[in-house]
Amino acid sequence: MHMELSLKKALLLPLLLLSVLLLASCVQGEDGPLGKLNIEEALQTAQKAFGEVDPEQEQLIGEEGVSVLLGAVPLVENDPVQRYVNRVGHWVALHTERRNLNWKFGVLDSTDINAFAAPGGYILITKGLLLKMQSESELAGTLAHETVHVVRKHHLHAVQKNARLDLAVQLAKTQVDEEHEETMEKLSNGFKELYARGLDKGDEFEADRMGVIIAARSGYDPYGLPAVLQTLAGMNPNDSSLAFLFKTHPPPAKRLSLLERLFNKLDPYARQPQLKQRFEQNIASLRASS
Amino acid sequence: MMRRVLLPLLAVFSLVQPVQAEEQVATVLRDTQLRSAPYSDAGVIATVKAKSRVTILERRGGWYQARDSRRHTGWLRMSNIRIGEGGATTGDGSGLGQTLRFLSSGRSGASGVTVATGIRGLDSADVVNATPDHNAVQRLDSFSVSAAAAKSFALNASLRSKRIGYLKEPE
Prior knowledge:
The complex is a heterodimer of chains A (290) and B (171). Helix content of chain A is 65%, strand content 5%.
């Protein structure tokens, strides 16, 4: 139902833009607001403007997004933990509709509790959140939530909307390349604004709803993500390590109450492994150094 | 040198001595039954009242094993409890809380530098003021693993893929 609606929207928007462009070129004679445009070009531009950038462009856009996050906080200096999170994350990502992306996962050296995604397959989780977890299924559920943001292109669409149409048109007209400083700066500013503000609540709820299924598909106990939300709901809301998360996400109790309506559908998979011991073995060095 | 010796030692120690999760208190949301096993048709051990507190011992799927004030131990559906003391745990990130957080965290403005040792925060100001770090992206890339490696790691733990469709948005 939901998917159908989005598809209609995706088709409708370029058509709308096309008609605006055509109308503008009629009023102004041969040259429209973007100069001479034939229908084919206009349609192409419109399609690209509304998010259907090609995978290479998406990867470059995502790199800019993740470079902003890594500019704000460094990666944890613990290669085994970084690899562990990649092994779990990539396995989970193989159970999404975009299994062939270059999925890359990282642990941020921050005691803050948060996780992030960027277009193209970048997922970051803070050390603070990782240390709150009690099993690999909790990690898998959290990473699954983040993969949904990539699969459904939540950030890609938001950053294009955010930086307004001009950025998208520019991206479509000029191949994104590192030399194109102005475009890249617009992009990184778009990501800064987006990460500081957060995604739409609907995107977060969708990521929760799809995330529990992706975790179950991957063979994990699907209650890992709800268990993490329970842990967060149980923390003192005035804990400073939750401030950024609470500013950018719906309250965990609200997310839980929406997920709970699906619990009966998850129960056939409830006995799939949590992998508590493997989780503790793999993050022991991180716990010890914190 | 010390670090190289110490870390593996600590890792081994933590295997022998399983990490004890801090005991969690939960609040019961509605009158519900404490059951003898994590199933809805398992026998009833006791009834717990809405707003009462229980101690969480373990989780299995969508059930928590809990102990009530009369020391009955049994299983509660996850949707019938909220971890935490209740009342103060509805955190909505609203104004006053934010201010208090700012005061208690000792953050010095936009830099995100914290006074307390061992705490490295992350807030919206840190992101807005960040200088994109492309070298760090390369380091991130270096940790990625192949699909085959991810698969064999999963099989080591007997994780099995399932075909499951997404669920519709609840009404």
